[in-house]
Amino acid sequence: MHPDQLPLSLSTVRGLIAEQFPQWRELPVRELDPGTVNAVFRIGDDLVARFPLQRGQESQLRAEADAAARLAVHTRFSVPRPVAFGSPGPGYPLPWSVLRWVPGTVASEAVAGSVAFAGDLAELIADVRGIPTGGGSFGGTGRGGRIATHDAWIETCFERSTELLDVPRLRRLWTRMRELPRGDAADVTNHGDLMPGNVLVTGGRLTGVLDVGGLGPADPALDLVGAWHLLDAAPRAVLRSRLGCGEAEWERGRAWAFVQAMGLVWYYRDSNPTMSRIGRTTLSRILAA
């Protein structure tokens, strides 16, 4: 999926587990669909190993462990708790982690029309917002600060999407979105990436959340991306009502979803068609609103 992606085979993973964690060497290991940041392997029934796909992502392993501990005491939804940390070894040059398996299936279009699921998602967002920031504020370069700082990225997306999307229409929309006011809204804690692949469902209800390493202070509207990635219009309105979102916050959430979705369509067109389709679906919802 990435030009600098590290190669990693199932046999290499089995060797690393056997060498570093011999207590698990007899457990079956199987590769799961990768995320965009980690290769993922299930170990037996209760564990999962995550291997960063690119150099520079290693710090996220500890960040996710710390974030999972914080989030677990603020929500009823399951989060992946760390069990062990692996070291670089033959065939793989970076640290890696082993986490508890969180049961459930990733959210799909099957729950997009569910009011009950929308209520669960609103509860999760509220739970995350309730985690104290400790006086911190957004200090990164990704999503969560000022919308207009993403002009260069969006321009790249437009240039790469001329044969994929209605770029003139999307340009007009971005012209309005980039000017949305932030006002004096203080940063609150956000998950930061409420995508379908990071939200787990059992029996049509939200039961778990993954990839919590980005947990931290940001624009209160950031986690509203989940409303556009995951919900159709009627359940989306339920989520908005449950969270009490005003117009400015709601529109910024739509803009953050736009920033993310624009990159998914072209970047993952060939390497991860599922992610590309998610981007298209989100943009369709945004344009229809």
Query: SSE order, as H and E?
Result: HEEEHEEEHHHEEEEHHHH
CATH topology descriptor of the largest domain? Aminoglycoside 3'-phosphotransferase, Chain: A, domain 2
Q: What's the CATH architecture of the largest domain?
A: Alpha-Beta Complex
**CATH H level of the largest domain: which superfamily?**
Aminoglycoside phosphotransferase (APH), C-terminal lobe
DSSP summary: helix tally: 9
Low-confidence region ranges: none
Mean pLDDT: 94
The class by helix and strand makeup works out as alpha+beta
Coarse morphology: globular
Percent of residues in beta strands: 5-15%
Task: Show the helix and strand layout.
Layout lengths: L9 H11 L8 E3 L6 E6 L3 E6 L6 H14 L9 E5 L9 E5 L4 E2 L8 H15 L21 H10 L6 H11 L10 E3 L8 E4 L2 E5 L6 E3 L6 H6 L2 H11 L3 H21 L5 H16 L1
Antiparallel strand pairs: 1-2, 2-3, 3-5, 4-5, 6-8, 7-10, 8-9
